[in-house]
Design goal:
Blueprint: E1 7-10, E2 18-22, E3 34-38, E4 45-48, E5 54-57, E6 76-84, E7 90-98, H1 100-112, H2 120-145, H3 149-169
Antiparallel strand pairs: 1-2, 2-5, 3-4, 3-6, 6-7
Helix pairs in contact: 1-2, 1-3, 2-3
Length: 173
């Protein structure tokens, strides 16, 4: 059996954490497992990686905050590289679009929309606007998954602008 490295990013439903699961198969004990994490707007950070489990990463582990502080991780395109020694031969790279902060904002806007109080025309328009915003968020994720990073960022920014406008004006009830 050969060593096959693979990782999987899983949802934590928490803007402060990132979960990366090791789904590799190993031929013997791996040497020096590490994870390189490229956070949007910050240099790549190498952190120790625990094999055969889910690694929970926060702002402190990434060097973005001090001990005891737990800040939200930024949305954007993340680049992950999992490697074992020798790293130049044994590595796997994953790229994904993190949208936890905008999703939290979207959920808040959706929950503020009182479906029972609005008149039908206003409620229908609000649903259309929220659906358009959600579509843009999903488009951003899809673009990132298909190596279209610039398009992903544009779709994310458009969704964020539309969401800010939606929240500012309210549902009009």
């Amino acid at each position: 059996m050969a060593t096959i490295l693979d990782i999987f990013v899983t949802q934590t439903y928490n803007v402060n954490t990132l979960a990366v699961a090791d789904i590799s198969t190993y031929d013997g004990a791996p040497v020096s497992p590490s994870l390189g994490v490229g956070v949007p707007g910050f240099p790549v950070v190498e952190i120790p990686f625990v094999i055969n489990t889910t690694n929970i990463i926060n702002s402190f582990k990434l060097g973005l905050s001090e001990v005891g502080a737990d800040y939200p991780l930024p949305d954007g395109i993340y680049h992950l590289t999992y490697s074992i020694a020798p790293a130049y031969e044994n590595f796997v790279t994953k790229t994904f679009m993190r949208v936890d902060k905008i999703q939290e904002k979207f959920d808040s806007a959706f929950m503020q929309l009182d479906m029972m109080e609005c008149n039908m025309a206003v409620k229908t328009q609000a649903k259309v606007e929220l659906s358009s915003i959600y579509f843009l968020i999903q488009g951003s994720i899809s673009a990132a998954n298909n190596c279209a990073e610039l398009e992903s960022e544009k779709l994310y920014q458009q969704a964020n602008k539309m969401l800010d406008r939606f929240i500012k004006k309210g549902c009009g009830c």
